[in-house]
Specification:
- This protein is α+β, with helices and mostly antiparallel strands.
- The protein is built from four helices and 22 strands.
- It is rod-shaped.
Amino acid sequence: MSLRLFLLFCILTGLSSLRWNSLDAMDAVYLRGKLLTQKEEVTLSEIAKLPGGIKDRVVLRNIKEPILLRPDDLRQILPEIAVSGKETLILPLNSELDPEDLQESLSQEIAKLPETKSEDFRITYLDGERLVPSKGVDLKWAGLPQVLHAGQIVASLDFYYEHRKVHTQRIKFKVEKKTSALFANKEIPKGQKLKASDLEERIVYMEDTFTDGLSNADIGSTALKDIQTGELLRKKQFRFLYDVQRGGDVNLVYTKGNLVIKAKTKALSSGNIGESVEVSSHSKEGKLMARVVEKGTVLLEN
């Protein structure tokens, strides 16, 4: 009987102890993991969850650099309050990065990418948080693509405190790639053929991937619209137009003495007046060579 009473006493004592510990935990403030602030003073509610009955108050003033606050640290400040939780890191955002410094820093980071030269790209800050602690943290770029393209990117700026990453800010940049392109050095009216003297080559930075620029191979093509002086030249603005167009209907003319034979056929290649083109025929070979004599008309020569 005495053994049973002893075991019952132990169980009741343990339950009572658990109950009081539970009540103590309910009355304790619980530390939050992190606080980013632009103020120089911090209140208790900003760094901890407060149970009912705990009055908010200022706990730290004149914050100039990051502070790692653990339960024992807070108990020294407020000995009358029970504290639970692991820790809270206070990061004062008391310095603002200059956009030009961000651009220069990211350009240097881009230069580290394989097969990438920083001078091939121009970086421009667009948007994103620039407030950081003035000291006490290391800032490192992350999240950059292995191959950089023209357009926009969002780069991650990581905060490191005591060799561990504690925060990330994402910043948007415009990326322009250096490229060679042809521009009009004079007005080119619609319908005029492109001449070499109409072109001026420039080295420019472009945000869009530029794949449809003109080249010297496009000299002789016809402008489909009016082109202004200084305008960037693209393939969609020009097209090679021929007196006889491949795939189009043509009049085939054959003469011998006073005999003139005319027929309709299809052009198998393109050409201008004086040039030879291929046209379809009902012969065994299926095609004939003829000379363009006027728009839409070819002459079959002996």
